[in-house]
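[job 4471] stage=fold_predict status=RUNNING
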Amino acid sequence: MVFETNVIYLFAIYNITPDLILIFVLIISYKEERTPAMLIAFFAGLLQDVFSADFFGLAALTKVIIVFVASFFQLPTKKYSLLYYTMSFLFLIFFHDLVYQFIYALGGEIGFFKLLIFYILPSTIYTLIFGVMAYLILKRKLWQKPINVE
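[job 4471] inference complete, writing structure tokens
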């Protein structure tokens, strides 16, 4: 969490940073069943809320929502091609950022298109880049078949 809140700002581009916690909970949602994944997402989001100055509970809420939606993208084999992973992550990250920014901006003066262009799309793309890198690095470790020793 210290990495997410402090070190990740070294990678900031125009104050946009990748959401590594989101990547983590999405990977968990592809690997685990819905209920444990939602619990992990809730506590990860709550931890993210503790270390941020934003609305308390907003990260936990959006992480749980997105893991619930992501559970419908889980394949029975739990083997994901790069294309499937990338396209589903693109949708899920975009949906997460849309919900998060929409709730965060409620009552504010910022318009939807400005919110979309300056916050949601850049954050989605940047987080997706880190998500694809995580897939490429962890592919064999996360989605290989367990070895049966008999």
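[job 4471] summary: Helices lie at 2-5, 20-31, 34-50, 58-70, 82-104, 112-143.
[job 4471] exit 0
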